[in-house]
Specification:
Elements lengths: L12 E4 L13 H9 L20 E11 L3 E8 L10 E2 L2 E3 L7 H13 L6 E6 L3 E2 L4 E10 L12 E8 H4 L6 E7 L2 E7 L2 E3 L11 E3 L3 H15 L1
Parallel strand pairs: 2-8
Antiparallel strand pairs: 1-10, 2-3, 2-5, 3-4, 3-9, 6-8, 7-8, 10-11, 12-13
């Protein structure tokens, strides 16, 4: 079965979760996140298994949710290269398929972040993991949440990554920015989230313009689970 190809922006919005409270700012600090992972609450992920649209064999993978410790926590995201065979051009976390040489899911996420964007391990403080997320393309993904000390210099691998950018964690942990979508593909009804973010123009560059970063699908689903974890 071929992977569905469509523009997710063309699918109407079926709802926006502005009725839900955002995560309080005092929970979005490095120390608060350390405490949350040391003493996790009782909670359940909202999104865990997408409806399959692939006949490929399941494969283990890990992604890194890198939270850069600036004046406020910023989530580092990538735009995947447009020549990749799967999920090309989409917004994603650094990460990928597990190698036999990887020690565990954390090792996979750190290795992939080094290979994709040259994020050095010694800048990364791993906090913990979220429940696995199974994509429609049969990847069983472990999200690894980490704090990242500033001062690194990223070098995106052009074969895998077209761009790297940061989004305020506070924006993503506010359900007023979580949009719901519904569509039918090959007779199967599917639902997913999007979290569009407009990146402000660079005031230091007169030619710079604001740019929309369309976060959706598995990336948005894992972020929604992170929201549930922090708001529980």
């Amino acid at each position: 079965m071929p992977l569905p190809v469509f523009d997710p922006r063309s699918i109407p919005i079926s709802g926006i979760d502005s009725h839900l409270a955002g995560v309080a700012l005092d929970r979005l600090t490095p120390q608060a996140l350390r405490q949350r992972f040391r003493h996790p609450p009782l909670w359940a992920p909202e999104h865990s298994v997408e409806k399959s649209f692939s006949d490929r064999q399941p494969a283990l993978a890990s992604v890194l949710l890198p939270l850069v410790m600036r004046e406020e926590l910023m989530l580092l995201l990538t735009e995947r290269s447009h020549n990749l065979s799967t999920h090309s051009g989409q917004i994603a976390f650094p990460g990928g398929r597990t190698d036999d040489s990887d020690q565990d899911a954390v090792d996979t996420a750190l290795r992939e972040a080094e290979e994709e964007i040259a994020l050095p391990r010694h800048h990364v403080e791993v906090l913990g993991t979220l429940p696995t997320y199974v994509t429609g393309s049969a990847f069983i993904i472990t999200p690894v949440v980490a704090l990242v000390r500033p001062g690194f210099e990223l070098r995106p691998n052009p074969g895998e990554v077209a761009d790297v950018f940061e989004v305020p964690l506070n924006y993503l942990m506010n359900p007023a920015h979580h949009r719901r979508h519904e569509s039918e593909f090959d007779g199967v009804f599917r639902q997913w989230l999007s979290m569009p973010y407009t990146e402000p123009a660079d005031e230091a560059c007169l030619a710079s313009e604001s740019r929309e970063r369309y976060i959706w699908g598995a990336t948005a689903g894992m972020l929604r689970n992170f929201y549930r974890f922090l708001s529980a």
